[in-house]
Amino acid sequence: MSEMGAGVDQTHEGKGGELLEVRGLTKIFGTLRACDAIDLSIGKGEIHALLGENGAGKSTLVKMLFGALEPAAGEIFWKGKPVSIQSPGEARRLGIGMVFQHFSLFEALTAAENIMLSLDDKTPILQVAERARELSKAYGLPLDPFAHVGDLSVGERQRIEIIRCLLQKPDLIILDEPTSVLTPQEADRLFVTLETLRDEGKSILYISHRLEEVKRLCDRATVLRHGKVVSHCDPRQETSASLAKMMVGDDVDTVRRTGHADSEGAALLEVKALKRPAANPFAMPLRGISLKVRSGTVMGIAGVAGNGQGELFEALSGEVLQDKADAIRIRDTDAGRLGISGRRLLGASFVPEERLGHGAAPQMRLSENLFLSRHVTDKRALLGMFGTVRVSALAKAASRIVKVMDVRKSGEDPEASALSGGNLQKFIIGRELDRQPAVIVVNQPTWGVDAGAAARIRQALIDLARSGSAVLVISQDLDELFEICDSIAVMHDGRLSAPMPIAEASFERIGLLMGGAEPERTGLPENTETA
Amino acid sequence: MMRLELVKRPQHSVLFSAISPLIALVLTMIAGAIMFSILGKNPLDALYYYFIDPLRETWSLHELAIKAAPLILIAVGLSVCFLSNNWNIGAEGQFIAGAIAGSILPVVFPDFQTWLVLPLMLVMGVAGGAAYAAVPAFLKARFNTNEILTSLMLVYVAQLFLDWIVRGPWRDPGGMNFPETRDFHAFAILPELMPSAGRANWGIVFAVLAALILWFILRKTRKGFEIRVLGQSPRAGRFAGFSSSRMVMVAFLISGGLAGLAGISEVAGAIGQLQPSISPGYGFTAIIVAFLGRLNPLGIVAAGFVLALSYLGGEAAQISLGLSDKAARAFQGMLLFFVLGCDTLIHYRIRLAGRAMRGGEVTTNA
Q: Least buried of A264, A305, A398, B157, by fewest C-beta within 10 Å?
């Protein structure tokens, strides 16, 4: 492991001189030093990783480099000259391009039209399409310029963003968590593209928290924690564990799968041929989904975002009702026509993907947010005469949850929006676990949650299953699913594959199913596909 | 390029949240004083006639209660609507509908005279207002129409219907062709509280009672929680198991019913008959009252008196200083402006930004 807090020049010399150098870059929000005297240098023709947990200051740093935020202090040198980057337009003119994690594409327009909109000059559409096609061929980014974005997969949309970025002929490309929406195979293809770009002498700043891919792809890494650089290192010389330790500043508890899953337990959650038409042109219909989650087990549903996971969650939770009562059975009771309160009364619990605005009301206090999902099931404890809310009972329960889940907060009973994402998620999960639900359905349990909190949440889910509950986890994070699940099924295009026991599952097989391969074909020998 | 930016404060001051309406009032007075001096009047005189003179005599305080009662009743109902994110702008129409429905007994059946008449009238007034509010509510819940538009348009329907009915079928047969109904008989009149001191009637009691009850519901009960959570964050509300479309009906029925009660109380109390025009815009002014009272029923009681004062003060200033009644309107408008301004500045602070951030790229959060 390299020395902590090392300066810029000690660790590495860039291949062809430094393209970008940052000294003492600082950004302050209120009392928070989001970036505190950051030093960073990126050489010509290197892939440089920017590692850090959520809230470590990665986004803030990148926004300053891209001209979207103004630094409070520090200097930026571009090709050896000091620059002050005033706007994203200026960053582009200098030769800095960026591919955001969340795309900004118009779904109703074609790929070429979307690209044209981002160009400063008025290039005719056919010429744009032609150039896009050339680039897509040169870099192995297959794309039909005249396809409507609404019809494209997330991976294809990302290619539009990358091509859009490449059209500006940047010297430095910033990629923010590019693989978070890709299947393992798509990610492999992206790595090939990035390596091609590097070999041409372009530099890439690669933001990620996935350590394996950083180790595989990147030449150098800068690790941030709490807004400070804790290390400049060569990720190839590090282990995943040592990188994780730099990011978190501590050893991360490993999740332990204690005990054995009872594969003959009673099916507490049963879904039979669940169908749901698409609610709008951009929603995914559910095309006959069946599954069984048994007592004592954790089942995972993998899949690329937008393949019907959100729609499935709403159907399971009862926010959307089914036509047939027996399409969903909870603890041997038909629940298809019951709303979310009725399903909760049967012993089910739900944690949606979106924390603010779905799982919790942002402007309401924690205790009120506890009431949000518990007011029916814990009526006796929480409601008094005339339907009054028993504030003291609520406060007591809330502080119990805060303690059990180690929720870090400021103030006695803050508004939900005042908590960090990870802490709010711990509270929401704790709120549901506190009931000891017989069935729990969780969508993206640790999305955007720091490693420490994620480990805690995952352990809590396993422990719940081992105490006899049925746990269903929908997630796009394969590492997470392999860590906690007893079986994994894959969702693609509104369909669900048969579940695979964890012993038989591999990244390769799951990845192929995520990409839409037919289930029979997933038995093929590994490594049949590369770009 | 210099420009102003609103930046959300990480924590808003509880003290300033509490006194913000008072700050707004003071600012309104300062701005009002400036306006009066531009109009060539002595600003101190004007403020005196606006805010002090109406409070000097008992009969005038009674008038204040008469004006405040409908404002409070309507605004308390509107607070339920606004908190649950239902924009009922048609309280003026529901006020009129309640007045007409409540007047059926004394106008159509003038010989039916028992002590039962008044309670029945009040119940019918509530029912009339609620039924009239149910129209935009149903249209929104069923067809997803915009309730701002439908409720507002129904105001004009109600006004014209009232105009027609008092000139047509309900015109007083012994009334020399004046466009008004017969005077209500004694059993149909809302009693005055202290007849020897002034005209204030039971309307103000209804208003304060309604405010207390709704305050209790909103602050202390699960129903209140349901109303607030569906307004703030509908998806979280659905996750809690509440129904948005049922809330549309509930909120409109409550606010329509209270507006209807205000309507029948006004005609059975201060007016004593139906006329082509029975409201100086109570239904619209109540929107200001609701926001000045921060959508809190107890705050609304105070705010109702403040705006009632601006009505009376406007009249006083008109008589004593010859100020146009438009000045009173401008005054009410400034008040709303400062209330909303103060509320915004409690949650946000103004920053002078030296340079512009470009385009939508910035908002795509990494």
A: A264
